Amino acid sequence: MKVAIIGAGSSGLTAAIRLEAYGIKPDIFERKSRVGDVFNHVAGLLNIIYRPIKDPLDYIKNNFDINIVPLNVINKVVMHGPTVTRTINSRRIGYYVIKGQDVASAENQLYEKLKTNINFNVHADYKKLKSEYDYVLIATGNQQIPKEVGCWQNFVETRLKIAEVIGKFDPTSLIMWLNTAYCKSGYVYLAPFDDKRAVLVLIVPYVTREEVAKYWNNFLRIEKINMDIVNIYDYEHISGNCFPHRFENLYFIGNAGGAIEPFLGFGQFASIMSGALAAKSIATGSDFEKEMLQLSNQNINMLELRKAIDTMDNDKYDRLIKILSAPLIKQLVYDTNFNVIKHSSIFTKYAANEIFYKPFKKLE
Ligand SMILES: Cc1cc2nc3c(=O)[nH]c(=O)nc-3n(C[C@H](O)[C@H](O)[C@H](O)COP(=O)(O)OP(=O)(O)OC[C@H]3O[C@@H](n4cnc5c(N)ncnc54)[C@H](O)[C@@H]3O)c2cc1C
Question: What angle do CA 339, 90, 49 make, to 5 degrees?
């Protein structure tokens, strides 16, 4: 069986490792000269997002025999609203993984597990490969090809400012800021590499590339940020629905398969999962759309959250932060396996003052 993989990011590398495990040696094409995003950054995996799965890294290890060593465990989240700040401490809120060309990055960890050589510096043409191979996995990190063949619907376009900053940090903490004045219905987060270096990322939906600088400056000014910025990059995320995930002999995985969810812009877990599931489908003949159902449903749940957040103003952000950090809610959300995303409308409707105001008010 001849299988080609276009793109050696998280999804393409995972698919390749799993195809090898099934005894299939794929041809892998990567346009860059090495694996990993061009700049190093820190990605968060928050356990509450993946429920009913308890722990995303354990899940990947137990089900697909792929062990990703995290940079750190997250055990503290500090949420800054427009006027309130709340801190959540819990034993294992999630993980940090390094992304990029660092030797410990998720991509390099996957690359190390691979036996097949990668064809670097090759910009692959999917139309050509489609006729030469039995299957072609589109793991290109963007929606271009699924869009071209009519399998893509855009959800949200988001602009990012990613700054590498120097300061003093707690490597197990995630700090988040919410304020419509500088991120509209997006957010800002700080994720440390270690106790001296971190990434500070602004994520703003529904703005043009030119407008992002204004939001970034507003953030620095309003939050009085005076860390040393040593590098800064612009980026964009497009979340959307890929359907079907298979078109003739093309399989869409990772961001090309809709891995970037529309609420927080997370896509690391779904990229790895979709790569593993595509390999399973090719090797065993299972229905890829059925394999992807849980991830697709998760995307739709996240879209509902996105719609709710889009209607909120600063008062509502403050209320949302208060409810998410109220003792009983905190226990339910972080210390049990309660499916927060599925039932998230309870919290967003509360914040929007639609339901349960009085009882929750007592908990704040
Ligand atoms: C700044 C930033 C912060 C993020 N933070 C988080 C986070 O906190 N949590 C989280 O879960 N996710 C996060 N993500 C998202 C997550 O990193 C991605 O969803 C995931 O890495 C996508 O993997 P992929 O395999 O689809 O694509 P990529 O990793 O982008 O890989 C695609 C590869 O395909 C190659 N390629 C493209 N076209 C061709 C071609 N024609 N021929 C050959 N090669 C080609 C590219 O060079 C690239 O190497 C973040 C992403 C960014 C950029």
Answer: 30
- With CA atoms as reference, report the closest residue to 6 among 106, 103, 146: 146
- Mutate which of 31, 144, 201 for ligand 1 pocket (most atoms within 8 A of beta carbon): 31
| Pocket of ligand 1 contains residue 295 by CB under 6 Å | no
Split at pLDDT 50, 70, 90, the class of 52 is confident
Domains of the chain, by residue range, sit at 3-306, 312-363
For the stretch 243-299, pLDDT in tens is 999 999 999 999 999 999 999 999 999 999 999 999 999 999 999 999 999 999 999
> Which of 5, 10, 101, 123 to mutate to test ligand 1, by most ligand atoms within 8 A of the CB atom?
10
pLDDT tens-place string over residues 319-362: 889 888 887 777 777 777 777 777 766 666 666 665 444 444 54
Tokens of 54: 């308890």
Tens of pLDDT, residues 225-242: 989 999 999 999 999 999
Q: Is 318 in the pocket of ligand 1 (CB under 6 A)?
A: no
Q: In 3D, which of 337, 266, 327 has the Cα closest to residue 43? A: 266
CB 6 near ligand 1, within 6 Å = yes
In the reported structure, the alpha carbon of residue 31 is separated from the centroid of ligand 1 by a whole-number distance in angstroms of 13
The reported pTM is 0.94
The C-alpha atoms of residue 74 and residue 190 are separated, in whole angstroms, by 12
CATH: 3.50.50.60, 3.30.200.20, 1.10.10.10, 3.30.1330.30. Which one for 3-306? 3.50.50.60
Q: Cα of 98 to ligand 1 centre, how many Å?
A: 13
